[in-house]
Amino acid sequence: WRRYPFGAAFAHSIGYSHPKFGAAGVEAAASQHLNGATPERLESWGELGRNLLIQDKRPRGQDLVLTLDAELQLAAVQGLGNRRGAVVLIRPADGAILALASSPSFDPSQLSPALFRGNPADSPLLNRATQGLYPPGSTFKIALAAEALDKGFTGTLACPAEGFTTSPRYPLIRDHEYYSAQRAGRSWGGHGNLDLTTAFVESSNVFFAQLGVQYGHEAFRANLERLLFGKPVRIYPGLDRTGAINTGRVPFIADKDRYGLAQASIGQGVMTASPAHMALLAAAVANQGIAMKPRLIATEPAAVLAQLMPTTTAARLAKMMRRVVTTGTGKPINTDKLAIAGKTGTAENPRGAAHGWFVGFAPAERPRLAVAVLVEQGGFGSTSAGPIARDLLLRAQNLGLME
Predict the structure, then answer these.
(1) What is the pLDDT of residues 213-226, one digit of tens each?
(2) How far apart are CA 360 and CA 73, in angstroms?
(3) Which terminus of the chain is more solvent-facing, meaning fewer CB atoms within 10 Å of its CB: N or C?
(4) Distant-in-sequence, close-in-space partners of 61: CB < 8 Å, separation ≥ 6
């Protein structure tokens, strides 16, 4: 018998255990532990012995504590409201996941056959935080900027208003200011020559599309592999699918397809990522380039997953992400109460309005928490995903978690 006092709020992490529908989530991964079938402590073996002596065939289940913070989880769920999307909040220093929200959700105490029918991609059962794959849009410029810093990029690239393309056969890749001006019925003169930091802060598609093409296909693939795209990353032990972050696959882009590379370099086209993976990337920037293994089980020891970038690269990138919030596309969420660093994203969606993204961390100078927010068809990330991230980080600050 199971009781889920928070209903749908924790469903995608805790999962469910049901005699007809089976088990999922931590319920599936730790079912034997929860049911008392695998004593792991000396006192537990003693308890099992007493049960045998008195012929009590009902083993007592053992507690399992998660890293989730109940107040922050509920705040993340509230932030999403009725919108489809996901929120992931990670402690960069040790990989502990404090919030893992996916919307829509389901009540694990009220499972029905109807819940398991239909398109899995639209189902409340889908954990959008760990399993959902979306074009990351401009948040992916974190990856390209890290590569450019590693390669010692200096100088500028010309970013004209008319945009950039690799061939007249393909549409021009343009900056968001072009379309804003077009909607307002006015002209825009373009950015002119941009350096890396300014291009990142202003989120110039023209700059990063050119940059990706200049570095080429092999460098693009190598950068994705370094950042763990296509690598298995589990958040709790076991074989349950939802217990692993879907890092996607390193997308295939033919060597002759320069336009496909340009699109992928700005987080569009064949490029996809999950919110949890983008949170992991932000956490690595916040943690001097080191990604700690993300974990949901509180007793699991902290462990290094990988060094995603050099310490010097992470430090410079962190400063660039702070400028995004103070003077760039993330300015709508800037607040005197907390120094937030991050990157906004507005990702084109072939099935509707653009998805809104925000990934980042706080406090900017001594990061304690990293966050990723994805709002399906939310439009501009600065006005859809960004406020959710800001409010969640401020709530964490009120709880004393930024000290």
Answers:
(1) 999 999 999 999 99
(2) 17
(3) N
(4) 33, 34, 35, 36
Distance CA 370, CA 93 (A): 10
Dihedral-angle region of residue 87 (phi above 0 means left; psi in -120 to 50 means alpha; beta otherwise):
beta
CA distance 284 to 98: 16
Closest CA to 389 of 12, 86, 10, 6: 86
Q: Which own/partner contact pairs does 255-262 have at CB distance under 8 Å and 24+ positions apart?
A: 255/217, 258/166, 258/167, 258/213, 259/165, 259/166, 259/167, 259/170, 261/212, 261/213, 261/216, 261/217, 261/220, 262/164, 262/165, 262/166, 262/173, 262/209, 262/210, 262/212, 262/213
Give the bridge partners for 43, in sequence order: none
Give the residue from 191, 194, 200, 189 showing the smallest Cα distance to 157.
Answer: 194
pLDDT along the chain (403 residues), means of 10: 86 90 84 55 45 52 88 98 97 98 95 88 92 96 98 96 97 95 93 98 98 98 97 87 88 97 97 98 98 96 98 98 98 98 94 95 98 97 98 98 95
For 19-49, the pLDDT digits (tens) are 899 888 888 877 655 655 554 444 444 444 4
Contact between 176 and 188 under an 8 Å Cβ cutoff? The reply is no
- Output Rg (C-alpha) for the chain, integer angstroms: 22
Confirm if 276 and 132 have CB atoms less than 8 A apart: no
Q: In sequence order, which ranges of 151-238 are alpha helices (DSSP H)?
A: 176-183, 196-202, 205-215, 217-226
Q: Give me the phi and psi of 374, to 5 degrees please.
A: -125, 125
Distance between CA atoms of 259 and 169, rounded to whole angstroms? 10
Quote the pLDDT of residue 60. Answer: 58
Q: Residue 363: is the preceding peptide bond cis (ω within 30°)?
A: yes
SS3 267: coil
Q: What tokens were used for 39?
A: 């004593």
Tokens for 337, please give them: 């109460």
Backbone dihedral angles phi then psi of residue 349, each to the nearest 5 degrees: -125, 115
pTM here is 0.92
Separation CA 272–CA 401 (nearest Å):
31
